Amino acid sequence: MNWAVYEALLSGVNKYSTSFGRIWLSVVFIFRVLVYLLTVGRVWGEDQKDFDCDTRQPGCKNVCYDHYFPVSHVRLWALQLIFVTCPSLLVIMHVAYREDKERKHREKMGKDYRKLYTNISKKRGGLWWTYVLSLLFKASVDAVFLYVFHMLYENYTLPRLVKCTLQPCPNTVDCYIPRSTEKNLFTLFMIATSILCIILNLCEVTYLVVKRCRECLSNKYNKNVIGSGEDSKLKVKQEDTVSVSGQPVFNGMDCRPPTIEIENSK
């Protein structure tokens, strides 16, 4: 897998992410991808070869290793990283779709055209939903893999010694896991970073939802204020003229009271 290309694609997410999203991306690449690339090969490289059992019975060692390591840590982490980071590409694809739609609209309407989007990368409408759903999906993927690790390896740790009674082992055989302490440390580190990423994703979702609710309430309040202001102006205009016995009487501030001319009779 070409991690350089993968990193270049995901680095574009920074332009469309919030502060929580940028922190999440930094944690993924620095504390998960780099640690995975630099340590996994050395810690788990010759794992099956170094797995030793107190017997020379053909097939016993392979059967015991497959029982206690049904899925390799290395492959599980690689699959987890792929599933966690792929939803971020959906945001880039959605923005690219908006840009292409805006370009076609500009070509169709000419220079003096009205833009479809005031800000293409602004998280509104469908892009907001794409972004929020991608965050929920990433948090769910991390949670599912944490559960899988817990089911396969109890308490996320590996013992130094395991006892195997599977066929074709002749009896209860003691098997030794190589570098179990080192593996436990790296496993716990990867679990901790996964939990941190889940927290960051949930914080970002909460931030986006709260921000959107505030904007909706602010827009509703502004509409109510504008509407009440127009109603008050209309009411003042209607009260400027009041009819008394069918004759209009002007009560405006700039209106003069009616005058009556009386002719002097000689």
Question: Would you write up a description of this structure?
Answer:
It is built from seven helices and five strands. It starts with a helix and ends in a 16-residue tail after the last strand. It has helices at 3-11, 19-43, 47-50, 60-68, 73-109, 126-152, 180-239; strands at 52-53, 161-164, 173-176, 241-244, 247-250. Helix 6 (126-152) runs antiparallel to helix 7. By secondary structure, it is mainly α. Strands 1-3-2 form a three-stranded antiparallel β-sheet. 64% of the residues lie in helices and 7% in strands.
Q: What's the structural blueprint in terms of helices and strands?
A:
Layout: H1 3-11, H2 19-43, H3 47-50, E1 52-53, H4 60-68, H5 73-109, H6 126-152, E2 161-164, E3 173-176, H7 180-239, E4 241-244, E5 247-250
Antiparallel strand pairs: 1-3, 2-3, 4-5
Give a short account of the largest sheet.
3 strands, antiparallel
Strand order of the biggest β-sheet: 1-3-2
The succession of helices and strands, N to C, reads HHHEHHHEEHEE
Number of strands: 5
Round the mean pLDDT to the nearest integer and report it. Answer: 78
Output the radius of gyration.
35 Å
Low-pLDDT stretches: 241-247, 249-254
What is the share of helical residues? Answer: 55-70%
Structural class: mainly alpha
What would the principal axes of the Cα set say about the shape?
A: elongated
